[in-house]
Every structure is written in C-alpha cells, then in structure tokens.
Amino acid sequence: MAHEKPVEIRWRDVDAYLHVNNAVYATYLEECRDEWVEQTLGEAGDPWDFVLARVAIDFRRELRLEDEAVVVSCSLDRIGTSSVTLREEIRTREGELSAESEAVLVARDRESGRSRPLTEAERAAFEGVREPA
C-alpha cells in the first residue's frame, strides 16, 4: 500500500529558471520516505538504523510555484536480505506525474557502520505493508 504525503511547494524550492530545482525533488521524496519508514517499522525497529544507498529519479514534468503543492507517494517494491527497495512518485494535486523514483534503504549496524541483515521484526513489519501480488 502506498503512503502519501502532501508537500507544499515553497518559495525557496524555486530556482533561477522559475521551476522547482531538481535537488528539491529529492527532498520531497525524502520527506515521504522518512515518514513511511517510521510508520511502517513502528515498534519493530528504529528508522535511524537505515541509510539511503541508492536513489534514481526520472523527471517527467517540471513543477512551478504556481502548482502550490504536490502529493508524494512511497510504496514497498522489494525486500532483500539487508535492504528494502521503494517505488516513489511525485504528482501534482491534480494527479499529473512529475517524477518517478526508485530508492534502496539498507539496514546499518550502528557500531560498525556496515550493512546488516534485517531483523525478523523489521522484515515482518515490511512484509506487513507489501501489496498482494
């Protein structure tokens, strides 16, 4: 199931071309992703134990200040041994696709700073939001 988060387009998001800067798209995605991880894990784990290992963004439509706000969505695509792959989208309030993204989050051992396998509790939490095939 997709998690959705409305995000207001702020004046500071707009660059000299008068559109939302490409780097800001990553911020919009991050805001939704962080909220999704926190809600999905609940008591099963700590969102601070995950780091972004990869993000790929395909830009489909420019955003402008006049769009006022976007709806960002995040859903689980795959569960790996030590990672989860997410599908993300940014849409205008009217539903027009502005960007598609794939993000990979990796579970990290706090002491070593290296990747670690998902715990049983984390895996169960992620599997609980998996869309039926």
Q: What do these coordinates show?
A:
The chain is an alpha+beta fold and 133 residues long. The protein is 21% helix and 36% strand. Strands 1-3-4-5-2 form a 5-stranded antiparallel sheet. A hairpin with a 4-residue loop joins strand 4 (83-92) and strand 5.
Summary tags:
alpha+beta; 36% strand
Brief overview:
This protein has 133 residues and is of the alpha+beta class. The chain has helices spanning 22-41, 120-127; strands at 3-8, 50-59, 69-79, 83-92, 97-107. The protein is elongated, with a radius of gyration of 16 Å.
Strand content: 35-45%
Cα separation of the termini: 12 Å
What order do the helices and strands follow?
EHEEEEH
Radius of gyration: 16 Å
Overall geometry comes to: elongated
Poorly predicted sequence stretches spanning 5 or more consecutive residues: none
Strand order of the largest sheet: 1-3-4-5-2
Number of beta-strand segments: 5
Mean pLDDT: 96
Q: Which class do the helix and strand fractions yield?
A: alpha+beta
Helix share bin: 10-25%
- Main pleated sheet: 5 strands, antiparallel
Q: Number of DSSP helices?
A: 2
